[in-house]
Hints:
Blueprint: E1 2-10, E2 25-26, H1 34-49, H2 58-66, E3 70-71, E4 75-80, E5 83-86, E6 88-89, E7 94-97, E8 103-105, E9 115-116, E10 121-125, E11 128-132, E12 136-145, E13 150-162, E14 167-174, H3 176-186, E15 189-193, E16 204-214, H4 224-227, E17 230-235, H5 252-263, E18 268-274, E19 277-280, E20 283-284, E21 289-290, E22 294-297, E23 302-307, H6 314-326, E24 339-341, E25 348-353, H7 367-395, E26 396-397, H8 402-414, H9 418-426, H10 430-438, E27 440-441, H11 448-454, H12 457-466, H13 472-480, H14 489-515
Parallel strand pairs: 2-13, 11-25
Antiparallel strand pairs: 1-14, 1-16, 3-14, 4-5, 4-14, 6-10, 7-8, 7-9, 8-25, 10-11, 12-13, 15-16, 17-23, 17-24, 18-23, 19-22, 20-21, 26-27
Helix pairs in contact: 7-13, 7-14, 8-14
Amino acid sequence: MAYIEISINLLSPVILSSDVPDNNLTETFDYIPASALIGLFATKYIFQNNLEDAHNDRKFYKWFLKGDLVFTNAYITMKDEYDEIDMLPTPLCIKKQKKGERILNILLNTEDEQTVFISPYAYIRGSSIKTYEPAKKINFHHMRDRLKGHTKDETMFNYEALMPGQIFKGKIYGDSINLKEFKETFGENIIGRLGKSKNTEYGEVEIALSEIINKDVDELISEDIEEKDYILLTFISPCILLNENGFPDPSLSNLERYLENVLDKGLFEIENCIIKTSFIENYVSIWKMKRPIETAIAAGSTVKLILKDNLPFESIKSSLEKIIKEGIGERRNEGFGRVKLNMATAEEYNKKTIKSKQNKPTSKIPQEAKKIFKNIIQNMLKEEFEGKAYEDALEFIQLPSNSLLGKLGLILSKCNNEEEFKEAIDELKSKAKNQLEDCKNKTKRCNLYEHMKKFKTTEIIVDSIYKDASKEDYLKLAKISDYNMEEEKELLIQLWKMYFSALFRHMRQIKKASDMGVI
Length: 519
């Protein structure tokens, strides 16, 4: 298997915008997507060769359209003493104790512990884990009126950007002939631009291409795979799967169908998994529009495969090599569907965190900046409560009728606070109350009626945010802007109404799908 290692040094802040429902904030990915690298090289190739119909050019077609070259996402590297360590998305099965410091692999460790997310990126060797997170900064700009051609009075928006000076690494896979031609075309060092606002002060990068590296795929299969009766398959990039009708479907059953095409049906079974989904959206310059959004299995998702008893390892070795080499799913030439086998096989880990240095301003934070921070925090909270409502809706069984759920939504919309709502549901007729009491939560010892009566917004904020390591940046924003979420009475009422409105809506959708026999 031949590849070129690609190293991207950020010479200026880089904005690789992700989809954020906030008009005042442009948030950035914390990695460099393969699609951005493809776009950079494709644009340079068109410019160098003065192409009008690039798709008719043999090399352009092979490298950027056909998929003879496979680009991967570029992830952050960290300096550890004298070495640079390449980080990868942290397997979602690795979690930290919610009220402790132990780090557990919840697919292998059967202890009943409440756990939280640890870090987006990690370097794992044996039972040792080092975590890291790319440095970002927020830049403020005056909002420009596009019709009048000048800035709006006191109106601001902000860009989140990856800090300059950081190095990200990825790979370009292909046969030696294509890789040699590619290197001869672009050279070893390239200055280019990536991301949003790249015609201004953002997006300048320096790219270095390594020599062609030839590595036997056999070397990438860890020695312990043959010794164990299971395989932990971790996605190190998002994975797009299509169902039989051609629509994105990141379900476990669909993943199993894809795996059966490689490993053969009956040779394995999925014992357990930790899977999250993410949304994929790209801008295609030749279309001058975005691709349709696709739902994918998120990077870090991990599946535990149990191999058939007494199955000779050699009989599946070639299949495992194919998965490592080619990946799983669709659009693999754009970096999707990359996997790593047995990336994390320890039951417990020792952690060493190296944080990037960030310069803090010495002056006081402007009031306008505090307002922006407040909006960012509030939008995060709204997303968190919306997501929790969806998760909680899935936990209830024997759902009330759609008419009752609709009535609850109407009552909610007319109430100004929680007490009014609780009094209103106490006045429901016994038939309606019985439906609420019969609707049980599968994991908590409560019914829907009790859930509505005992729900506390502040507890959700504490449990889901203050104790979640992934929300650390938001807590920093709250601290430096003197913003106490738990004392914002209007916000708490808004979040409470948003949660139950979403809960009733999702329950109606689940009920409708169930009645139609979809689930």
